[in-house]
Amino acid sequence: MTIKEFARLCGCNPQTLRYYDHVGLLKPVKVDQWSGYRFYEEDQAFTFVKIKNLQKAGFTIEEIKALLDQDDHVIYMAFDAKITEAERRLQEIKHIQKLYQTEMKQIQEKIHEVREKFCSQ
Would you state the pLDDT for residue 117? Predict the structure, then answer.
């Protein structure tokens, strides 16, 4: 099927498929040497779904490439690892938030001390 037909099947635009081809994620099964038209097979829609969901979950292009040939069990494990990392990062951000509050109070106190020093001189 043409890139336009395949894009319609996948619910994306042809530019997305051109990008996936360019970065080596989803190559067309055939490219017409004269027109440059790209052609895809229906089964490639499964690969598209993998790519789209992995990308939405924040996987890099290289990570996605490494996962494309893996079975669903490995992909679910990769999602679990991504979730664990996101939870760790969330805890880190919460800790930074608390530090922010503490440091803002500390700097406010230091400014107050400096002002009092200069005012009393």
Answer: 84
